Amino acid sequence: NFCLMQRTKLHTLRPILFYMFLCSCLFPGSNMVIVAQYDEAIIANANMKGFELCRIGRTAECVEQYSISLKLYSNQSTVYFHLGSALRSLNQLHESVSAYESSVQLAETSGDSKVMINARFQLGMTKIDQGQWDAAIVEFDRILAMDRNVILPEALYRLTYLQHFACNFTRREKLLRDVKETVSWELSAGTSKMTPSQALMLLDSPHLYDLSRMYSDGHLLAARQLEGHTRPWFWNLGDFLYLTGFSVSSYGAYSPQHLSVTDGRLRIGYISKDFGFSSVGQLLPRLFSGHDRRRFKVSAYSVGDKDGSWYEKEVEEAVQHWVHLAGVAPQDIAARINTDAVNILIDLSGHFSVSAQVALAMQPAAVAVSYLGWLSTTGAPYIQVLSVSLYGMQL
Length: 395
What we know:
Blueprint: H1 2-8, H2 13-26, H3 31-55, H4 59-72, H5 77-89, H6 93-110, H7 113-129, H8 133-144, H9 152-166, H10 172-189, H11 196-202, H12 205-226, H13 240-243, E1 266-272, H14 284-289, E2 296-302, H15 310-318, E3 321-324, H16 330-339, E4 344-347, H17 354-361, E5 367-371, E6 385-387
Parallel strand pairs: 1-2, 1-4, 2-3, 4-5, 5-6
Helix pairs in contact: 2-3, 3-4, 4-5, 5-6, 5-7, 6-7, 7-8, 8-9, 9-10, 10-12, 12-17, 16-17
């Protein structure tokens, strides 16, 4: 009864401890049992309190609670795992590695394979944060040596992707075969652990297209859930896009005002998370400054964090309209673009930016174009144009 109550209602802890104290006075022979129960109650309270503190973002206090629990009873692989995660979020990487290593050792001793696999995976991720790519590869490789588990695909993708940066191509051909087989298996189940960066590097065209379509389906679903029918950008589709052969989503929208040019200039909007120091950002200032401002009104919608780089400042100066939308909800991004009456919206991030993709799925502009940031088709029915060089891509 005590264990049940103490798991479900933390606020009952003090009355229970008082009851234990009373029992120890009435039945002196039970002192050792009472002490054990008292410690157990404190441990469970600290663990649950620590979990809740982490959940609401009070991470430093969370670490303190986990430390209290481990001082009383150190043989807790799960608590060490959560402690490692909390420390990593505080960027205390050395301490995080130590906690994950303790979790792995304890889980291995107790035979808890699920905790051990998760701890090894997070240990590998923390090693990446430290720049220790070879050490991370070792941890992911150890996971692959175990039986198939829910986290195995992610470990396989991380390992194969990381080999490029570590120049370590051990068993490369076999790993790539395993990647394709695993992706095919995941896609048949309707989900995948593969990230967009990994997909562009590791997959060939058929698999990459299928995975891109899966990403797009997720963005469409998110757009449907966020979009209200009273939103100003929700319109019924006309015949324009169908007659021109464009692919559109079954529910999408554009406003007739987007097809008009009120001041003689075409309104072009660029949306990206990479307007700063990045491979894409370095190419943009000259692109934007090359627009004829007598014919085009150019806006830039930034959904990434500002980095204060020279490239970012150049982009701001090169466009007529700069809008910083980092951290803004996708439906509000779409509303802003719609309010600005953009004719053509050009996406420079592809599936690397979820917020931009969900906003694009709401079709706030008449025509959407994918360019530069995603070196393949996005597979998105809400993007009608893919802009590529005929010399750089085989169609």
